[in-house]
Design goal:
With about 250 residues, this protein is mainly alpha-helical. The chain contains 4 helices and 3 strands.
């Protein structure tokens, strides 16, 4: 950079700093997207586990109700057996009619209990089958999550290594700038969606698409001063004097 002005050298360093920050941001976004997908899957699994736990609680309540109703059914059966035994020992017609009436009531209650137990049995069996199906779905989801976590482990390690290496390079590049410029760069980077350095094309800031005054354009083209866009505050460079990698071209 021997043929470049001091301002051009600083802008060149700022461009390299911006390129490294772009790299770090891109890798972080890829890493966050990867981990975010897995986190969402784990949240879904946690929700489904909670739903399954609630379903099992309801099943337990239904089974307790079934046990109670089955007990009531057995009680009605015992009543009917006793009534039959009682009827066999009846000798008077009035008593015979009364016992028969009692047996009719017992049979009605018994039929109701049997119908209720039958319906409960069907509902419980169906609910059990639903829980089994949901349990299988959750198991498959958990397997997918485990496989994705294992598959992502190496990629995440590489991404973290890339970020760490880029941060080291960034630190080295930043030492070539004054602390004041680094602080201003960081402030603009945060305020302007991660773009603190941008090109000037045909007198227009490519960051905010605003036209600059000719005196600013002249200073940028000559590289005589470090110019920030008066509209968006981004550092500006002459796009025609930088290569595709953002490095200043000597003598341009």
């Amino acid at each position: 950079m021997a043929n470049l002005t001091q301002a051009q050298q600083i802008i060149d360093v700022l461009r390299r700093l911006q390129a490294i920050d772009d790299e770090i941001r891109d890798v972080r976004e890829g890493r966050d997207a990867m981990t975010g997908n897995l986190e969402r899957l784990h949240r879904v699994l946690e929700m489904r586990d909670g739903q399954l736990a609630e379903m099992r609680d309801k099943l337990s309540e239904a089974e307790s109700w079934f046990t109670k109703k089955s007990g009531e059914l057995e009680t009605e059966k015992e009543k009917l057996t006793k009534a039959k035994a009682k009827l066999s020992g009846v000798t008077r017609s009035k008593e015979y009619v009364a016992v028969n009436r009692e047996m009719d009531n017992i049979r009605k209650n018994l039929a109701n209990r049997e119908d209720e137990v039958k319906r409960l049995t069907g509902a419980i069996d169906e609910f059990r089958a639903t829980i089994v199906r949901e349990d299988e779905k959750v198991a498959r989801m958990r397997q997918v999550a485990d496989e994705e976590a294992q598959g992502n482990e190496a990629a995440l390690g590489e991404m973290n290594a890339t970020i760490s290496g880029a941060e080291d390079r960034r630190g080295e590049v930043a030492t070539q700038l004054s602390s004041g410029i680094v602080r201003r760069y960081a402030k603009i980077f945060k305020a302007r969606d991660g773009v603190a350095v941008t090109g000037l094309t045909d007198g227009v800031c490519t960051g905010c698409n605003m036209v600059l005054q000719p005196r600013f354009v002249e200073q940028i083209l000559r590289g005589s001063s470090i110019i920030q866009c008066p509209h968006c505050s981004r550092y500006l460079f002459d796009g025609s004097s930088h290569d595709a990698d953002g490095n200043a071209i000597a003598g341009s």
